């Protein structure tokens, strides 16, 4: 039995009995996926972990499938970037495990994967809840491979990635005719031993650059992009806690990003589109029309 540190556990649930599939394994599994409820009165059990994208923060932006799985979860294992509004949808009798990686409290990925395997083998309905989309810088692929290697069925539920949602919430279209015909999403966080990102080459690609988890490295990122040819006055927008009541949008130049105060977590948008605020223009048009 894997020991989970008590500080990671928020709420605990009564253990659901192992529920099986009997002879109609495929039909039962499909019904579980469709409704989020396990079929009763079978001899064998379903062992499934759902890797669920929680979206950018606003619970209204969850997919219908994600909300259904949350409503029937026995255990929810979540990251630090999952919004409080989303976690409020977890049943009160469900077990909640916070495995978010924070400064001073790292949680090894190997421990998280082992925990998911252990919970899956207990026959519980497990939701692995990840901010944004589970396969966009969320290590969802690693967890899916670990679960499948252990013989555990995995369901992947896509979510709205913050690389698109955060700019949109700030009124910034990441592509815009005549302004940006391409968008590159990149992480600003690199683990020791991983190859560095060639920011100078990225500067020559053109279009919009969206940086996730890059607040701590923003000075290095800005310097490297300018060394690669991006103009010092290239527009930059930072979006903190996108789509939530705590959302804050700041704008500066690429050169100014080095010294610009930015609160984490934030998405950094770099390129001409960062100067746009379509939402403000629409609001202004509505006011003028009235």
List keywords for this structure.
single chain; 290 residues; alpha/beta; Cobalt-precorrin-4 Transmethylase, domain 1; Methyltransferase, Cobalt-precorrin-4 Transmethylase, Domain 2; 2 domains; five-stranded parallel beta sheet; five-stranded mixed beta sheet; 9 helices; 10 strands; disordered N terminus
Q: What does this protein structure show overall?
A:
A hairpin with a 7-residue loop joins β8 (235-240) and β9. This protein has helices spanning 25-35, 64-71, 84-87, 109-121, 140-149, 162-169, 199-203, 218-227, 278-289, and strands at 48-53, 75-78, 95-98, 126-130, 153-157, 183-187, 208-212, 235-240, 248-253, 266-270. α4 crosses α5. It is built from 9 helices and 10 strands. The strands form 2 sheets. A 5-stranded parallel sheet has the order 3-2-4-1-5, with helices on both faces. By secondary structure, the protein is of the alpha/beta class. It folds into 2 domains: 6-160, 3-Layer(aba) Sandwich (Cobalt-precorrin-4 Transmethylase, domain 1), CATH 3.40.1010.10; 163-279, 2-Layer Sandwich (Methyltransferase, Cobalt-precorrin-4 Transmethylase, Domain 2). Residues 1-26 and 39-45 have low confidence and may be disordered. The chain starts with 24 loop residues before the first helix and ends with a helix. The longest helix is centred in the middle third of the chain and has 13 residues, at 109-121.
């Amino acid at each position: 039995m894997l020991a989970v540190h008590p500080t990671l556990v928020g709420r605990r649930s009564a253990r659901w009995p192992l529920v099986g599939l009997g002879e109609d394994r495929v039909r039962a599994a499909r019904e579980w996926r469709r409704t989020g409820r396990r079929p009763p009165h079978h001899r064998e059990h379903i062992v499934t972990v759902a890797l669920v994208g929680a979206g950018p923060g606003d619970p209204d932006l969850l997919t219908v499938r994600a909300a259904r799985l949350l409503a029937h979860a026995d255990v929810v294992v979540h990251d630090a970037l999952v919004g409080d509004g989303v976690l409020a949808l977890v049943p009160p009798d469900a077990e909640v495990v916070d495995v978010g990686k924070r400064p001073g409290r790292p949680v090894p990925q190997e421990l998280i994967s082992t925990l998911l395997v252990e919970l899956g083998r207990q026959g519980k309905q497990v939701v692995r809840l990840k901010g944004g989309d589970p396969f966009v810088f969320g290590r969802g692929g690693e967890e899916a491979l670990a679960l499948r290697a252990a013989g555990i069925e995995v369901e992947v539920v896509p979510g709205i990635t913050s690389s698109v949602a955060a700019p949109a919430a700030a009124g910034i279209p990441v592509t815009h005719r005549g302004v940006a015909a391409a968008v590159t999403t990149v992480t600003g966080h690199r683990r020791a031993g991983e190859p560095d990102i060639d920011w100078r080459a990225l500067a020559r690609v053109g279009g919009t650059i969206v940086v996730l988890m890059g607040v701590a490295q923003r000075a290095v990122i800005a310097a490297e992009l300018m060394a690669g040819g991006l103009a010092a006055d290239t527009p930059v927008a930072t979006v903190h806690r996108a789509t939530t009541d705590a959302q804050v949008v700041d704008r500066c130049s690429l050169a100014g990003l080095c010294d610009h105060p930015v609160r984490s977590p934030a998405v950094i948008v770099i390129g001409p589109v960062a100067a746009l605020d379509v939402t403000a223009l629409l609001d202004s048009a509505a006011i003028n029309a009235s």
